[in-house]
Amino acid sequence: VRRRIGIDVGGTNTDAVVIEEGIVKAWVKKPTTADVTTGITRALAALVEQAPAAREAQAVMIGTTHFTNAVVQRRDLGRVAAVRIGLPSGASLPPFVDWPEDLAALVRGEVVMLEGGHEFDGRPLVPFDSRGMREAARRIRAAGIRSVGIAAVFSPLNASCEEEAGAILQQECPDVAVTLSHRLGRIGLLERENAALLNACLVELARTTARAFTRALRASGIAAPLYLTQNDGTVMLAEVAEAYPVYSFASGPTNSMRGAAFLGKRDEALVIDVGGTTTDIGILRLGFPREANNVVEIGGVRTLFRMPDLLSLGLGGGTLITSAPPSLTIGPTSVGYRLTEQALVFGGDVLTVTDVAVAAGLIDLGDRRRVASLPAGLVAQALTRIRAMIEEGVDRMKTDAAEAPLIAVGGGAFLVPPRLAGVSEVLNVPHQAVANAVGAAIAQVSGEVDQIFQDLSRNEAIDRARRLAEDKAVEAGADRATISIVEVEDLPLAYLPGNSLRTRVRVVGEIA
Amino acid sequence: MRPVGADEIESLAIGAWILGTGGGGSPYLALLNMRQLYRKGVVCQLMDASELHDDDLVAVVSNMGAPLVGQERLTDPKTMALAVTMMEEYLGRKFHAVMSLEIGGGNSIQPFMAAAVLDLPVVDGDCMGRAFPEAQMTSFAIHDLRMYPLTLADVRDNAVVVARAASWKWMERISRKACVEVGSIASTCKAPRTGKEIKECAILGSTTKAIRIGRAVQAARRAHRDPIDAVLEVEAGIKIFSGKILDIARRTTEGFLRGTATIEGLDQFRGHTFKLAFQNEFAVGWLDDRPRVMTPDLICVLDTVSGDAIGTETLRYGQRMTVIALPAPPILLTPKGIEHVGPRAFGYDLDFRSVFA
Lengths: 512, 357
Fold this sequence. Notes:
The structure holds two protein chains of two kinds.
Chain A: E1 3-9, E2 13-20, E3 23-31, H1 37-50, E4 59-64, H2 66-72, E5 80-87, H3 101-107, E6 108-115, H4 130-142, E7 147-152, H5 160-172, E8 177-180, H6 189-219, E9 226-229, E10 234-237, H7 238-241, H8 251-264, E11 269-274, E12 279-285, E13 288-289, E14 296-298, E15 301-303, E16 311-313, E17 319-324, E18 327-334, H9 339-342, H10 353-359, H11 376-397, E19 404-409, E20 423-428, H12 435-441, E21 444-454, H13 458-475, E22 484-493, E23 500-509
Parallel strand pairs in A: 1-4, 4-9, 5-6, 5-7, 7-8, 10-21, 11-19, 19-20
Antiparallel strand pairs in A: 1-2, 2-3, 9-10, 11-12, 12-13, 12-16, 14-15, 17-18, 21-23, 22-23
Helix pairs in contact in A: 1-6, 4-5, 8-12
Chain B: E1 2-3, H1 6-19, H2 28-39, E2 45-47, E3 57-65, H3 67-70, H4 77-91, E4 97-100, H5 110-118, E5 122-123, E6 125-126, H6 139-142, E7 150-153, E8 159-162, H7 168-181, E9 185-189, E10 193-194, H8 195-201, E11 203-204, H9 206-222, H10 227-235, E12 238-253, E13 256-265, E14 273-279, E15 281-287, E16 290-294, E17 298-303, E18 320-326, H11 335-341
């Protein structure tokens, strides 16, 4: 029996599900704890109680916003060395140049700028200063820095400088963790470098967190390997994933979208995930979230790497409503996890979106008598406003004017009206409140190859890249028979010897 | 002559991006450079053209190349200054000031970067009054000023002097070729100008104008007022259309980003459709298939809520945007000006009619 456990650790709740042969067998929702692991242990205990067979799961997938929160809240971040390879260009804008001061002060250790890098057409900019790199590596060791982010000019087109620098670091200080920017980002040096530096300052936390998760599993009597879910909706074995914490930055919303695709049995649809504080709207293409191709800010740092394209609205079950007739304001403040103390229906004294929904009969929560006296006009006005927010958000995310289905998930899915402009149908799916954990449980393994092939035809190069990507996926734990291609991209490069073609292929497959 | 505050450089970046009329490149990296310089205590000086002597020499500077390359090979004040000192060596004369080639986009800030290194004042002006894609689309070309010599420097100490060129087109071809060779990004110092030429042929006051526009947007945002209304007020602009992007078609041809955006009207424009054609910058707009606004009137597209300028390369479906027109500098509206930068210069068979006429 194919059996998986999916866990999503959100800011408010830790959700867990067990799925057997594609059917949700049990699900639980437990409060997230400050240390994260206690919440996971409690969720697992409750899950095993409901479905004892969960102990025999073949794989456990965890999605967590822990690393994003660490950046946003400025805690548990390591000091890092930044190595920029690209002098003489870019000298006036060193690493960390556009970081918020408080965050840079916490993270910035050594800053090293060296000659090297490439041109847009693959020629070297200037020869790589490997001797300077060796000296820098010794300084980094002497400074006691344990994590290094390396970014070279045009490394997404030619990564040789970053790779050489990484190899020198491994020789001189074998214990440091090395993040190479080309593994994370695309064209845009500062944004790619920022992603590498964020990753570098989280590596230590990722390592201890992944190990704590594994211990929590073992303590719960589960022997299955642990996978961490990624921004793109796939999973990596925890011991691999711990080197790339930034790849899990948006895994929460991604898991919700993947879960929505699975529960709604749609590969092409809009997804709306209404939580306690925010609503995320995204688009499914071939069952995966559409990727953003613009700058994404995390904790005030501009980055550009593979992230789902999402629109976040300040609308959730806990969002505050302030009314001073005739005007009415929704959000953006939310009571968040204090909903069950502060909302009117729970005996509190602030008016939230949930109170309005209870008054309108959209859901039965808490004590509905406590909202019986809300003026009908106010309730209607609030619902009209919520509809307008959702309709505009949905319209902004669409790529064309055609109507599309919308899958509603998340604990606040009851706020989504059954009919919306521009939407062919609103799909309310079973287990919608734990769609994120479902998305984690069904996640597949991916393999990606992005390299330059020479003297091959386009088809031969893609074929070669596909086979390499498949091998990588199998290595990462995929069942070869289930592998399929999700992305192919190729780019001819001038000024390189022979007939050079840069080819990128990404495949996904089920966990073996 | 007056000192320019750090806050004014921030306003300049916002205003220049709006005056970029969809092109000119984002001023973000140039702004980061200025923040670094001001942190070190630099204060640039802005001078009125009237303070120039007729025989003073002014360096007209700009960054040249592919925006994508600029995202990796980051712009640097020293390289910008290098193109200027090279020109001084070639001429055997010293410059008295620097000025921007185009006030629209990132090139609005390049002269400040050079000025900071060279300790020279910046002339309040440029020679486009906005952004344009080609070298002959300047007030100097319209006035038939000499287009050579030109110096071009890259960060590796490669430097080229284009001593002579038979026409603006030739200057563009030769310098473009050199630029591609050094990696499609270079700092350039255009043909040197005398104080007299600046006073008679430049588009004066455009730096102050960009700062003023940026400041209006910032003040409106702070006061929770509509930033677009604020821009229209300070510049006597006209709101042309407001709506959301329904369709966007783009293609790259001959090094230009060309395309058309179709916008569906919202609010007061509900029921109407607007089509906007661009070639790096916004060139012509049609309201319900009738030409409504065209170059050289400035066609600026702003995010309806934030008032931020939207570049032609970042337009996308569903964006809420407002099209406004700002008056073009008078020199661009002369018959000779229309010949250089009117609709026909961009391949549209239309007689120019200003929305301000």
